[in-house]
User: What shape does this take?
Amino acid sequence: MVMVLAVALTWAVEGGARTAQADESRPPADRQLLFYNHSYGVLDRETADAIEHSAYLRDFADFQVRTTTGAGGQTWTGRYLMGRETYLELFGVGDLPGQDGTVGSTGMGLSTERAGDLATVTERLRDQGVANPVEFRQTRDFGDGVPVPWFDAVFTTDQYDAFGAWAMEYLPEYFADPRSNTEPAGYPGDVGRERYLSDDYRDHLMRDVTSVRLAVSARDLANTVPLLRAGGFVTRAEADGGIVARRGGTTIRFDAVPRDQVGLRQVELSLNRPVEYRHEERIGRSTLVVGPGARAVWTFGTAE
Assistant: This one.
């Protein structure tokens, strides 16, 4: 679910983050608190439309096109590829309001698996130098005008160029609402991704997002590293100024680039079963290569 950062943060208090550390950093505690939930990218209109109307994607993944109504009545229409625990959300230029709707804009949600862990992440952010984390509650309206609490979120800052990351924790009220079509808890305090997402992925080839590569500005990257470390990721600085975050099942790669070069670059996906062949699907200005084996790689063009 996209946050629509510029809109969402008007509902929250102001915050700030210090500059990211440049060396390899271990998380401040051993237990992983945050896991990759989903990321989104705003693509050129040609590619977004090709994705929306792709017959191949509807067979390849649990693919959906839907409009969501969040807090304050804000709406967004996204193209979704849903997996077992993770998913991908794609937009075209102008599908989101303001700066969030420009080509190259991206975002990423990291979520907890156990109730209460978001509070610990917030405290860890303060240890990382984020004096005033920005807190926000998202709601969801299923179309009947009765919004239900959906998840709580925390940002490091309300100032960003084209990328924003947030920590999130699904709420008990959402799981309890029959309109959510979620699964029963697998253990006490289960607010996890697998419970939130349906099992419809089993009927398709795509299983999960295993790696994502995003080109972001230096400022946006600096604001993101404290959140990664507070969640338990191990971050490693690259020679070109980028960052690689590992731990938790999905590798997250950030390239530090000028503002006019930002955007979603590549997504790697695991498959429910290996395939013997290599299939290349051109979708607008993007290329999805499936197999051989149990993986697929989706490469996106640069922002224009």
Summary: The CA atoms of residues 104 and 263 lie 4 Å apart. The longest helix spans residues 218-231.
